[in-house]
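BUG: 3D viewer hangs when loading the predicted structure for this chain

Environment: internal workstation, default settings.
Expected: structure renders.
Actual: progress bar stalls at 90%.

Input used:
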Amino acid sequence: MPGQITARRLATLASAAIAVLSLSTPLLASELVMFERPGCGWCARFNAEIAPIYGKTDEGRALPLRRVDLTQKLPADLAGIDPGAFTPTFVVVDQGHEIGRIRGYPGDAFFFGLLGRIMNATSGTPARS
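Structure tokens produced before the viewer hung:
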């Protein structure tokens, strides 16, 4: 009938609306944000010791590494996160909220232990032994 919305038409409209919303609304996943600056010696050390293997670890799969250059404008989705004064600073972000942070790079012997503590305290993910 003219002027009436059928159940099928309503379902089609609802599906289209959901599809549009999913494209326009960013999904906020857990991530490890590394705030860094060019010329940072501790950032370079992290890049040499951890960066090549990070994505292959359990921590890297759970918290993908996202790098943010502090000489550039902060991304809008991180506006509520204070990058701190020291680089590197690593911030665990979940759904746009800070969960924990590591100030500076403590070396490869301590980095995963500290990150594991943050993960264990917030999500029940076992810390690396």
